[in-house]
Amino acid sequence: MIVVSGVPVIKSRQNIHYKQWQRYVDHPEDHSCPWIPTEGWKLVRDLCSQRPIELLLFSNPEDPRLEVLLARSRRRFCVSEQLLNKLSSVECSQGVVAFFPKPTWNWENLTSRVLYLDRLQDPGNLGTLLRTAQATGMFSLVTCPKTVSFFNSKVIRASSGSLFSVPFLENISILKLK
């Protein structure tokens, strides 16, 4: 493995770390995935001001925006632009992907007002509800079984980071909620 300025450089899709990151990006809802992949300079910067970055991947080590992110990351790798684009969930990657620990919530974290979602399937709608809940600060979210996962990659993207601020519980029957 090549190292530039103390940061390992990965250029092969066959790299064992890269393969694992690809699985995390492809299936963040999987219980074996401990992290949430996020991308984009603004979102990553905003989130790292509240919590450390577990893993930071970037393609341009000369980018001046990296300084703050490097200081807040536990592990970091420079990845070729081609490989980073393959990890990206958008057409044009911004050149940075960060992994943050999945938030965990319990019953005590829920607000007094709860929005119960029954078999919601559209990840964009769940992401929008997360953003709305964060903007109002008035409610938490609880989903029944057979509802799209909060950790679905499209929910993560649509939530624009709200996933880390809004208390939620998944796979709760209405009887258990009552």
Structural category is alpha/beta
Rg from alpha-carbon coordinates: 17 Å
User: Considering DSSP H and I runs of 4 or more, what fraction of the residues is helical?
Assistant: 25-40%
- Can you list the strand order of the major beta sheet? 1-2-5-4-6-3
Helices and strands, in N-to-C order?
Answer: EEHEHEHEHEEHEHEH
Calculate the mean pLDDT score and round it: 93
Oligomer: single chain
How many E strands? 9
Helices and strands in order, then pairings?
Elements: E1 2-4, E2 7-10, H1 16-26, E3 35-39, H2 41-48, E4 53-58, H3 66-71, E5 73-79, H4 81-87, E6 96-101, E7 114-117, H5 123-136, E8 140-143, H6 153-159, E9 168-169, H7 174-177
Parallel strand pairs: 2-5, 4-5, 7-8, 8-9
Antiparallel strand pairs: 1-2, 3-6, 4-6
Helix pairs in contact: 5-6
Overview features:
7 helices, 6-stranded mixed β-sheet, 3-stranded parallel β-sheet, alpha/beta
How would you portray this structure in words?
By secondary structure, the protein is α/β, with parallel strands linked by helices. The protein has helices at 16-26, 41-48, 66-71, 81-87, 123-136, 153-159, 174-177, and strands at residues 2-4, 7-10, 35-39, 53-58, 73-79, 96-101, 114-117, 140-143, 168-169. The strands form two sheets. Strands 1-2-5-4-6-3 form a six-stranded mixed sheet, sandwiched between helices. The chain has a three-stranded parallel sheet with strand order 7-8-9, covered by helices on one side. Helix 5 packs parallel to helix 6 (153-159). The longest helix has 14 residues, at 123-136.
